Amino acid sequence: MRSEAKIVKENPSPSEMLDSAFLRWWDLCKDGKMIEVPLAVEKVRMEKVFIPKANKEESRPVLTFAKTDKRLILNKTNTKTMIAGHGIDTAKWIGKTITLYVDTNVKLQGQKTNGIRIKII
Q1: pLDDT at res. 16
Q2: Which residues on adjacent β-strands are paired with residue 118?
Q3: What would the pLDDT profile of 35-53 be if each residue is shown by its tens digit?
Q4: What does the alpha-carbon distance between residue 41 and residue 64 come to, in Å, rounded to a whole number?
Q5: Sign of dihedral through CA atoms 45, 28, 38, 98?
Q6: In sequence order, what are the beta bridge partners of 117?
Q7: Has this prediction a pTM greater than 0.85?
């Protein structure tokens, strides 16, 4: 007798299939559409994170937010956006609300892909 697999959820989202502590572009989708998400910065810190293209851990700036457990690893573009909008003193970023959105024209290793971008509000 073959046991039946227990179905946990039909049609899971990419966020559920590729669970991560960090925000990914598909986390900014609702009902199949890309959405803008305003979030208040709670913490700014340097964390050791695994970087696949370098195949090693590197120290990167990471934002945590008040209304989600997921964190955002800041790439150079998003770091420059934060500096331009809120200054070089990262302590002053705390409490600021930013909007995250999906940019469909991000270049990663020479390939066009989707990525998270920051909009200062």
Answers
A1: 61
A2: 100
A3: 999 999 999 999 999 887 7
A4: 6
A5: positive
A6: 101
A7: no
